[in-house]
Amino acid sequence: MHARYANQPSFPMKNSAMRSYLFNWEKIENNDKKLKEHLKKKFGIEWTETRIERIDDNNIKLFFSDMNCFLLSLNDKRTMVRATLTDDGRTDDFIAKMENGDLNVYKKPDKPMDSFPKM
Question: Is 41 helix (H, G, I), strand (E, B) or coil?
Answer without folding.
Answer: helix
